[in-house]
Amino acid sequence: MKTLLRIDASARRTDNDKPSYNSISKSLAQLFCDHWQAQNNLSEFIYRDLGDQVPPAITQDWIAAVFTPEEHQSTEQQRLLALSDCLIDELQRADIILISTPMYNYGMPAALKAWFDQVIRINRTFSFDLKRGDFPLRPILSGKKLVLVYSCGEFGFGEEGIRAGMNHLSPHIKTLSHYLGVEQFYEVRSEYQEFADERHRASIKAASASLTELALKI
């Protein structure tokens, strides 16, 4: 039995009166889910819409709670970590992580960064030991797959693209995914949204085809 954790980060919904207002990244993620669940209809599905329920930013008190041994945490510290504990539990149960997000200002939305800050946590998803030398951090989780689906207003954000150096979204998420226990990373994007021309339509079609194929084999 496989468990799929879906994280949507777009502030937009998919049920707007004007279809042009709908979230492209969420729509593409739904396409993947439809095909994946058709092949894994007995699997568990966990869903988080960060655009609807934004995780709180971490605070000094939150950090203090994280570094307080569990047996010494106060009731208030336990309360501060309750959401983080829940999100980490969802992550631990997942075999496949599906993250859909728009590219905002060439990076990830604040809501998605807040989710990462809540789940990448010492002694829960990574360990820290200075005996390891210059690389003291090590992931605790392992064996997971991550599918990143993202939409861009401009184009050329691939490795050989004209805006490759401006892509601070997928490289950032790929780096962070190591501490989620991810060992296989897949990336699908749509581009040209702001141009709203044939290139945009072709990009969505290509992304849809890639996600359909990926859902059948992952």
TrEMBL record:
<dbReference type="Pfam" id="PF02525">
    <property type="entry name" value="Flavodoxin_2"/>
</dbReference>
<feature type="binding site">
    <location>
        <begin position="23"/>
        <end position="25"/>
    </location>
    <ligand>
        <name>FMN</name>
    </ligand>
</feature>
<keyword id="KW-0520">NAD</keyword>
<comment type="subunit">
    <text>Homodimer.</text>
</comment>
<keyword id="KW-0288">FMN</keyword>
<comment type="function">
    <text>Quinone reductase that provides resistance to thiol-specific stress caused by electrophilic quinones.</text>
</comment>
<dbReference type="InterPro" id="IPR029039">
    <property type="entry name" value="Flavoprotein-like_sf"/>
</dbReference>
<comment type="similarity">
    <text>Belongs to the azoreductase type 1 family.</text>
</comment>
<keyword id="KW-0560">Oxidoreductase</keyword>
<dbReference type="InterPro" id="IPR003680">
    <property type="entry name" value="Flavodoxin_fold"/>
</dbReference>
<comment type="function">
    <text>Also exhibits azoreductase activity. Catalyzes the reductive cleavage of the azo bond in aromatic azo compounds to the corresponding amines.</text>
</comment>
<feature type="binding site">
    <location>
        <position position="10"/>
    </location>
    <ligand>
        <name>FMN</name>
    </ligand>
</feature>
<keyword id="KW-0285">Flavoprotein</keyword>
<feature type="domain" description="Flavodoxin-like fold">
    <location>
        <begin position="19"/>
        <end position="209"/>
    </location>
</feature>
<dbReference type="InterPro" id="IPR023048">
    <property type="entry name" value="NADH:quinone_OxRdtase_FMN_depd"/>
</dbReference>
<dbReference type="InterPro" id="IPR050104">
    <property type="entry name" value="FMN-dep_NADH:Q_OxRdtase_AzoR1"/>
</dbReference>
<protein>
    <recommendedName>
        <fullName>FMN dependent NADH:quinone oxidoreductase</fullName>
        <ecNumber>1.6.5.-</ecNumber>
        <ecNumber>1.7.1.17</ecNumber>
    </recommendedName>
</protein>
